[in-house]
Amino acid sequence: MASSQNTKIIFGLKVKQLRKELNLSFQDLKDRSGLSVSYLNEIEKGKKYPRTDKIEALAGALNTTYEELVSKKLSKSLLPLSELLESNFLQDLPLDLFGIEATKVVEIIANAPTKVGAFITALMDTARKYELEQQHFYFSALRSYLELHENYFEDIEKEVDKFIRENRISTSSNVSFDTLGRILQKKFRYKIDADSFIGQPELAHIRSLYIPNKKKLLVNYELTPAQRAFQMAKEAGYNHLKLKDRIYTSIFLKVGSFDEVLNNFKASYFAVALLMQRDSIVKDLGSFFKLNRWNSTAMFAIIDKYQATPEMFLQRMTSLAPKFFGLDQLFFLRMSNQPNSKQYYITKELHIPKQQQPYGNEIQEHYCRRWVSTWLLKDLNRLQETNRYQKPLIGVQRSRYFGTPDEYFCITIAAPGNPTPDINISVTIGFLVNDKFKETIRFWNDDNIPIQIVNNTCERCQVEDCEERVAEPIIVQKEAKEEEVEQIIAQLMGK
Q: Which of 91, 119, 227, 338 is the most interior residue, by most CB within 10 Å?
């Protein structure tokens, strides 16, 4: 929030507080000051800051001085709000993305400044205590935004169609790296450089780098054709959508603003939609879903047809499945693991329309090894150890979540990371098995698909005699101990 906006908010709060202390209605203050009721209302909401003569009129009407009214010093009861405004906490919140005015938030706080102010202060203190970085909040806000829209954005889909028409791109074949390169060079005056990464091992994990003052795009030569095409399509998205606030590397080294996070998503969505055009892939998915038996070869055939990465393909499924197939209860997870390591980390997640299972805890716990997301990474590691790995692995599982009626149909693809092969990656799409899913996916009850009881983490799992367990259920044990203490206290109280 800009400093001028803070000034308006503080001024409005002081007017409101003084008016209430004098027990004046808006009409009373109008009669005293000569300002209209609507204008006074705008002032108190922090939307208007009056001229000097009107401030003087207000000061007289409120039995105070001009200097006191324009001072940014707030009363003791409003000090938490003052600290909040000075911290720029509200400025960091992407409120407009969710249709929320910052002044509305301030108004809520101002109506109960002590209680709400203490709550906000507690949130800020908690964030500092647990080192919740600003960029983590931005990514969480983006994820919530995607989930609210079921990860489907018609406006970007239409822009992809427009881009295809304007650049006379054939819809009967894939949009290649070369085609996108020519468009970037001819239409947007780019220079493409695939050599500068050579001899730069420190940049091995970066897929591309854009140098704006030279309009030069450096592309990592270690990328697969699909990854190179994605980087080019993403640059096309930035330019076609006219997205100004952006990062210049393929990954976030440092987050400058929420607009950078949002625009990176929009350009990425544009790229995937361009490389896997909606009408074509919806048709292919429809045919795949009608198969009577699970067929991993058929799924790989679709991925190969669009020359997509596994993550691009499953991400595209999360966008299209709710919109075109009515499968609106799903999750997407990306999990990473270092070969020979027993630690697994969720590095990306999306839940539509609510938090499905499993989910990222952001804590040092051990994710359930029964999920296909983890055991497929273990299979990949074993193949690597014996030099037998040849291509990405695909696994499927009906995951019945322990202690709930929920069952998820999970499809996972695992492969070494590229261009960082020291990290293995699995990506998973999981559909809630309900009537709509059974109606749409014919192979859902294929006898060859394993059914497994799963949980979130070992520390929170009540499954007994679990052979896959790698940590004791300490959270469950702690809760059981607390419940036992409560029961004993309740018995004593009842005596």
A: 227
